[in-house]
């Protein structure tokens, strides 16, 4: 690994928690809130998601934690690849030990009523083309082989998003994360890398990543991939990436979490210290994220 990033999960959480205040918020309805959040001087309250308090991360980080824990467990105890039940167990475990708002309402209700991976798999309908499979997959980039990255990204996607777009989006994000950690080429070579490893993807072709993204980010998940690609290839510091995600609008927290998790391996960290100091620090907060991130890097370097 050329660009070890012990704080990958911490940066995922910061991007998630900052941009959560603006998720699907219309700038013309809440211009002062957008202005405040763009200052990056702290965490702010979302105008309608009132149970998610400032400085708290959302599902993007919690499910990324689950992925990292699965990768760490299998590296240490099991020579075989993690499988779909491993990820289903992880989704339910991390939610029930630390219940929180921030999930899509339907999926949150599903998690609340399913406490085991077995029950999860029995009742889930994994037919979504939304971005849930790619917003949690940044940790998979630590795997040393691109073939392994593609396989594990697809396996975790299949638990909830077993659709062509769901699987493609997870593989594309995991490859971008792997590129940041393992390659020396600048991010402007990212499209070449994706085309090499996803050569038959009609979604990559239709996405036209060379075109700038400049709209609110909504479904399907290819839009999230495109927005993240734009941030990585057109900005050069973490504050620029985070502000760019917020300025897109739409699903700002997913885009910010993914992009900051990837960019933090390479780009200068010019984020204000207050974002680190004020991030939630309960049992699975700031300190846990730093410990888990180091364990993840130790396991794969």
What does this structure look like?
The chain is mostly helical and 301 residues long. It has one domain (8-299): Orthogonal Bundle (ADP-ribosylglycohydrolase fold), CATH 1.10.4080. Helices cover 57% and strands 0% of the residues. The protein has helices spanning 8-19, 31-38, 59-77, 84-97, 105-113, 117-123, 146-158, 164-182, 190-197, 202-207, 221-234, 238-248, 252-263, 273-277, 286-299. The longest helix has 19 residues, at 59-77. The mean pLDDT is 96.
Question: Key terms for this structure?
Answer:
ADP-ribosylglycohydrolase fold; 301 residues; 57% helix
CATH homology superfamily name: ADP-ribosylation/Crystallin J1
The portion of residues forming beta strands comes to under 5%
What multimeric state do the chains show? Answer: single chain
Count of separate DSSP helical elements = 15
**Envelope shape:** globular
Count of β-strands = 0
Radius of gyration: 17 Å
Summarize the biggest pleated sheet. none
Architecture, according to CATH? Orthogonal Bundle
User: What is the terminal-to-terminal distance?
Assistant: 6 Å
The H/E string reads HHHHHHHHHHHHHHH
Helix proportion: 55-70%
Secondary structure: elements and pairs:
Elements: H1 8-19, H2 31-38, H3 59-77, H4 84-97, H5 105-113, H6 117-123, H7 146-158, H8 164-182, H9 190-197, H10 202-207, H11 221-234, H12 238-248, H13 252-263, H14 273-277, H15 286-299
Helix pairs in contact: 1-3, 1-13, 1-15, 3-4, 3-15, 4-6, 7-8, 8-9, 8-11, 8-13, 11-12, 11-13, 12-13
């Amino acid at each position: 690994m050329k660009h070890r990033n012990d704080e990958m999960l911490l940066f995922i959480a910061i991007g998630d928690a900052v941009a959560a205040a603006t998720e699907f918020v219309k700038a013309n309805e809440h211009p002062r809130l957008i202005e405040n959040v763009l200052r990056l001087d702290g965490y702010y309250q979302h105008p309608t998601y009132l149970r998610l308090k400032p400085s708290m991360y959302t599902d993007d980080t919690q499910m990324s934690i689950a992925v990292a824990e699965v990768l760490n467990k299998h590296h240490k105890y099991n020579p075989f690849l993690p499988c779909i039940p491993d990820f289903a167990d992880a989704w339910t475990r991390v939610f029930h030990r630390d219940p929180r708002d921030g999930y899509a309402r339907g999926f949150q209700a599903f998690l609340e009523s399913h406490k085991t991976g077995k029950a999860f798999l029995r009742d889930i309908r994994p037919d979504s083309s939304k971005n849930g499979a790619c917003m949690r997959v940044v940790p998979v980039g630590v795997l040393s082989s691109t073939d392994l990255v593609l396989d594990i990204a697809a396996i975790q996607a299949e638990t909830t998003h077993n659709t062509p777009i769901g699987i493609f989006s997870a593989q594309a994000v995991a490859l971008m994360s792997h590129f940041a950690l393992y390659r020396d080429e600048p991010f402007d070579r990212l499209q070449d890398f994706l085309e090499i490893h996803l050569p038959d993807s009609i979604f990559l072709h239709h996405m036209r990543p060379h075109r700038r993204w400049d709209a609110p980010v909504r479904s399907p998940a290819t839009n999230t991939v495109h927005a993240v690609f734009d941030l990585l290839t057109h900005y050069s510091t973490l504050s620029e990436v985070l502000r760019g995600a917020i300025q897109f609008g739409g699903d700002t927290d997913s885009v910010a979490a993914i992009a900051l998790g990837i960019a933090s391996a390479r780009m200068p960290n010019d984020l204000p210290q207050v974002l680190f100091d004020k991030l939630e620090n309960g049992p699975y907060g700031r300190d846990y994220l730093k410990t888990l991130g180091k364990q993840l890097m130790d396991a794969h370097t």
